[in-house]
Amino acid sequence: MDVSEYMPMFLAEAREHLQELNLAVVRIEESPDDQETVNEIFRIAHSMKGMSATMGFERMAALTHQMEDVFELLRQRSGGLPREAIDVLLACLDALEATVGTIEETGAENLDPAELIEQLKGLVRERTTEQEVHRVGGPAPVPPPEVVAERAGGRRIVRVVVELSEDCAMPSVRAYMVLNALGEQGTVLSSAPAVEKVDAFEGRQIEAWIAAEAHDEEIVAAARRIADVTDATIAEVSEETLDAAAEQQQQQAEATAASAAADRPANGAAPAQANGHKPTTSVRVDAARLDQLMHYMGELVVHRTHVESLAAQAEVPGLQQAMADLARASQSLQAMVMQVRMIPVEAVFLRFPRLVRDLSSKLGKQVELKLVGQDTELDRTVVDALGDPLVHLVRNGLDHGLETPEERRAAGKPETGVLEISAAHAGGNVVISVRDDGRGIDPAKVAAKAVDRGLITAEQAESIDQARAAELLFAPGFSTAETTSDISGRGVGMDAVRTIIRELGGDVNFISEKGAGTTAQIRLPLTLAIMAALLIEVDGLPYAIPLERVQRTVRLEDHVVQSVAGSRMLVMREEVYPLLDGGEALGRGLPSGDTDHAVIVTSGDRTMALAVSKLVGQRELVTRPLPPDVSDSAAVSGGAVLSSGDIALIVDCDALNTTTGLIAA
Fold first, then answer.
1. Contact by Cβ (8 Å): 135, 127
2. What is the pTM of this model?
3. Which residues are catalytic?
4. Do 453 and 597 sit in the same domain of this protein?
5. Residue ranges of E strands in 106-203
6. ∠ CA(102), CA(105), CA(106), 5° rounding?
7. Could you tell me the residue range of the domain that residue 147 belongs to?
8. Does residue 423 form part of some domain?
9. What is the DSSP string of 458-488?
10. pLDDT category, 534, cuts 50, 70, 90?
C-alpha cells in the first residue's frame, strides 16, 4: 500500500502527539496520582506506535512500544515515576521529535533506538504471571456453542496456530495482520491475542479458531505470506472435541465468577466503567487551503467595496437594499472565515512546561509555571510566528529574571519563583505577557553595560530611569549577562524578538520594578489578513493607517503648530505632539504640499501626529506583504488593493519613531 499521500497527516499528528506527551510527562512528574493524565499518556503513546507502524517507521514504533512498558509502571505504583525515568522518557521524546524532522526532510527515519530501549528496559520491573499472560497471550478460548451456531453457519471449525520469528520487531502489528488474513479465509470465532487486546501483544505464537470457507492449504498460505511468520499449522476440530472443550471452559468461568463474587464489596458496587471518549466533530484541513480561502475572501471584500461605491452613485430602485443584504451576508461569511483561521495560543503554550522544567534544572532554580488564558484565540499565521519570540522571553525570564533559591531567601522571598505566561483579548488585539517575580531590571547595571557598548554616553547614563533601561534591552547586541552560554548572553535575543513582533504588526515592551519582577508584554493584532484602516492621502497617493493605532483626527487650521528645537509640534489643549510631515515620514523624501489634516497615532510607547493631505475614510483592506527593500526604506509594512485598483501602502506606526530620528524617552 502506498502511504506517501498520508505523510503530511502523519507528520502533523506526530508533532501534535509528541507535544502532548511532553506536557503529560511533565504534568505527571508534578502530580503523580493524576489518573486522567496517566490514561492520556497511554492513549497518545498507543496512537504514536500505531501511526509509526502503519507508515512503515518500525524504529519509531519499537521505541514507542518500549516506552509503553515504562508507562505501565504508572498504573502499578503510587507516587509516580522517579526523576531518572522521567529524564529517559523525555530523551526518547526528543529523539522521536528529531526523527519526525528527518522524515519530513528526507522521507526516512534516522533513528537508532537501541541505547534508549536498553535504558527503558532497565526501568521496567518483572511482570506478574497474570500481566505476562495479558501481554503475551495464552491459548485461544474455545468459542461457545451459541457463537458456533450463530456465526459458523454449518461451516467446518479449524484451529490455526501461527509462529512468529524470535527477532520480530513488532509482534502486535504482525498479529493484527495475521488475524486480518485469517478473517479473509473465514470467520474468526476467537483468538489469542483477542482482537481488542492485539495492540499489547508481544508474544511469538498466535492462535485462532475460525469457521473456514477456504481449503486448509489456502488458509496456511495466507498466514505464511505475512512477514516474520516462520510457521503455520491447521487442524480441523470435531464437534465432540468442540463440545468437550466448551464444557471445560464453562466450568472454569463459573469458578472464576464465584471467586470474584466472594471478593466483591458488601454493598455490591461494581467497578466504575471508564468514560468513553466523545466522538470528534472536527476535521483536519490543510493550512494551504485555509490560506487560499482567506485569499478569496479578501478578493470578495475588495469587490464588495467597489460595488458599494458604484451603487452609491446609481439610482436604481431596490439597489440600496440589495447592497445592504449583500454586505450583511458577506460580512457574516468574512467573520466565519476569520474564525476558521483562529486557533488557541495553547498551541504555543504547550511547549513551555517542558522548557521550564529543563532550564530550571540546568540553572539550579525552583520555578512554578503558571499558564493563563490558553484558550485565547489568534490567527494561525500569528500563532505560527509567535513561538520563537516567546521562547526568547521565557529563557530571558528564567536566566536573568528569577533568582536562585539562596538569593531569594536572602531577599525575603519564597525559594520557588513564579513565571506566568498569560494571554487575553484587548479590543482588536491580543496581549501576551511573560511575568516573573524575580530581581527586576537594574537601571544602573543596564546603563553601565550600555556605556561599555557605546550605546549611550556616561552623562546620559546618569539620568537613565526604569523605562529607558527597559528600552535599552532591545538594542541590537545588548546583553547584561556576564558570560555567554547556550541559554543567554549572546546579545541576539531581545532585538530579534521586537523585529519579529513588529513584522506581525504588534509591539513588545518591558515593565519592571527592581526587586519585584519584570513583565514582558506583547501586543498583537487578532489577524493579519483583513484589517480595518483609516484611508488617507499624501500628495495624492493613498495610504492606510491601522485603525487600532488611530486616536483621533484633527484639522491643522484649528490648532497651533510651533517649532521647538527645530522640530514641529502640534499644540492641543490637553497635550503637545511631535508633528511629522507625511511625505518625509512615509519615505517619499520630500515635504508634502498641502497638509490640511493630522492623524494622532500611537507609535511604540509614544503618541505623535502625522500631517496628511486628505482623510478619505474607514475601509476594510486585504493586506499583502511588501518586498524587503521597500519596507526597509520607508515606514510602511504592507500594501492593499483598493476598489479603484490603486494600491494603498499600510503605515508602520512603530517605524515612525526610527525613520524620523525620534527616540522614545
1. yes
2. 0.61
3. 46, 68, 396
4. no
5. 157-164, 186-192
6. 80
7. 132-249
8. yes
9. HHHHTT--HHHHHHHTTSTT----SS--SSS
10. very high
